[in-house]
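Q: Joint fold for the lines below.
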Amino acid sequence: MLGPVRIATWNVNSVLAREPRMLEWLERVAPDVVCLQETKCDDAAFPRAGVEALGYEVAAHGEGRWNGVALLSRVGIDDVRRGLPSDPGFPTPDVREARAVSATCGGVRVWSVYVPNGREPGHEHYAYKLAWFDALRDAVAAELPGPLAVMGDFNVAPTDADVWDPKAFTHSTHVTPPERGALAALRDLGLGDVVPRALKYDIPFTYWDYRAGMFHKNLGMRIDLVYASEPVRTRVTDAWIDREARKGKGASDHAPVVVELSDES
DNA sequence: ATGTCCACAACATGTGGA
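A: Joint structure:
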């Protein structure tokens, strides 16, 4: 089977609310593999028919009201795994949220992840966020080396340049040294940040709050990331943010990140 | 002046999360 040449990640903020926009987007962009986050529906409710009609196979891992991740692939979807083996759980270890699903798609191990938000530094949700990152690192490490990409809403801005104003984040999550350290720990495994082009403005933001005209003013954050292993990175020919998908009525508050890959061999 | 959007419980509008 041929490998994927266009892979994408998109926090859709409810796959049911987003289905019309998502189907339009799949037709327009025609990605081979898509990682979805915040699907907000259980697996039985996932709107499979529309995406299957476009030629995609679906691996969903959802739970109902919150969270939820999924993979769409038209280059095969094998060895699907849901969750993380050492998931810390929240609020107690027995409660495991639907935040990770992985599969092998056309020879590439693809992860769709929705990292916990953390609420605020010092909150128990913040400790959960860091523990969840540790569990992700351990699960990914077990699958390396090899072509692999961890894609999704990491809820961390890698650098101060990845938020609209660092001063607005002085007592906030998403920018703290421990959170950025969790990204560094993934890079220490051999993964690298595939930084997309912004298409408009200089900074490749992927998320803009719905409130206060943040998108219009381009006050955003780059928190949707693609962390790829070396065999994938060497194939990257382009990466870009589809801000068109963030415009207008019925948009998610996140824009998709699209990565173009050269053909294998 | 916490601005919007989403799901849920419940059937009006409040709540929690982002």
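Q: Anything notable?
A: Chain A has one domain: 6-261. DSSP finds five helices and twelve strands in chain A.
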